[in-house]
């Protein structure tokens, strides 16, 4: 399996989720920082590097963000918000059956990570660089998103739809399928994002002991 490289991530345009409320200079700062952090890593991209890419003085950046850590915290928050909202929307539209709810959650999880690979890399690889007080809001959203998946799995187990000895381990494996996408997936006519999302959903159902085409009665 091919792994991602900084040059590959740099070659793809860094785009914030449509739900991101930032605009104007603030949005340009975030998009440029996203590109730099994804391609170089947070610690290897300085405020001076960011200012140079934006053709601004470093002091001008501080008018919008008090530190490089605050830029990262905003990106991490935006990523977690987009992910959580995507999961909630998918779940609300999936009906009451655990199999369809699970399929909807996995498809949304896959689509976000495949559509925004730079953001996924920065959110998941660089959140550890934040001090606790800046990471806390995003970590709370992460817990809420994990709880959505666990609730569906437990509901399916209670109804006899899913058969799995350790729900936490399987939930982590399902999440990991999406987390690794930026490091290998490139959309192509042979495998586009929607097709990949469908494949991930079927794999998740198999992990949970549900046949791919099984419908609850």
Describe the protein's architecture and organization:
This is TetR family transcriptional regulator. Keywords: DNA-binding. InterPro entries: Homeodomain-like_sf, HTH-type_TetR-like_transc_reg, HTH_TetR, KstR2_TetR_C, Tet_transcr_reg_TetR-rel_C_sf. It comes from Corallococcus coralloides (Myxococcus coralloides). This protein is mainly α. The protein has 2 domains: 24-64, Arc Repressor Mutant, subunit A (Orthogonal Bundle), CATH 1.10.10.60; 68-208, Tetracycline Repressor, domain 2 (Orthogonal Bundle), CATH 1.10.357. Helices cover 66% and strands 0% of the residues. It has helices spanning 6-11, 24-40, 47-54, 58-61, 68-92, 98-115, 117-126, 132-158, 167-179, 193-207. Helix 5 (68-92) packs parallel to helix 8 (132-158). The radius of gyration is 19 Å and the shape is elongated.
Largest sheet: none
Number of strands: 0
Cα gyration radius (Å): 19 Å
Oligomer: single chain
Label the overall shape. Answer: elongated
The CATH superfamily of the largest domain is known as Tetracycline Repressor, domain 2
CATH topology of the largest domain: Tetracycline Repressor, domain 2
**Helicity range:** 55-70%
Along the chain, the helix and strand elements come as HHHHHHHHHH
Supply the number of structural domains.
2
Structural class: mainly alpha
Uncertain runs with pLDDT below 50, 5 residues or more? 1-8, 212-217
CATH class designation of the largest domain: Mainly Alpha
Strand content: under 5%
CATH architecture of the largest domain: Orthogonal Bundle
DNA-binding region: 46-65
Protein name: TetR family transcriptional regulator
GO molecular function, one term: DNA-binding transcription factor activity
InterPro entries: Homeodomain-like_sf (IPR009057), HTH-type_TetR-like_transc_reg (IPR050109), HTH_TetR (IPR001647), KstR2_TetR_C (IPR041490), Tet_transcr_reg_TetR-rel_C_sf (IPR036271)
């Amino acid at each position: 399996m091919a792994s991602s490289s900084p040059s590959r991530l740099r070659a793809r345009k860094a785009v914030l989720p449509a739900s991101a409320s930032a605009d104007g200079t603030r949005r340009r700062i975030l998009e440029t920082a996203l590109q730099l952090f994804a391609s170089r890593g947070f610690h290897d991209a300085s405020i001076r590097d960011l200012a140079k890419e934006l053709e601004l003085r470093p002091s001008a950046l501080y008018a919008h963000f008090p530190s490089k850590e605050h830029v990262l915290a905003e990106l991490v928050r935006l990523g977690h918000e987009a992910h959580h909202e995507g999961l909630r929307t998918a779940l609300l539209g999936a009906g009451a059956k655990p199999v369809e709810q699970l399929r909807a959650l996995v498809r949304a999880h896959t689509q976000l990570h495949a559509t925004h690979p730079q953001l996924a890399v920065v959110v998941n690889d660089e959140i550890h660089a934040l001090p606790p007080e800046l990471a806390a809001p995003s970590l709370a959203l992460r817990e809420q998103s994990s709880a959505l998946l666990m609730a569906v799995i437990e509901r399916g187990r209670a109804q006899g739809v899913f058969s799995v000895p350790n729900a936490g381990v399987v939930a982590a494996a399902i999440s990991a399928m999406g987390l690794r996408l930026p490091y290998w997936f490139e959309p192509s006519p042979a495998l586009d994002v929607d097709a990949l999302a469908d494949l991930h959903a079927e794999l998740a159902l198999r992990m949970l002991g549900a046949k791919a085409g099984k419908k609850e009665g």
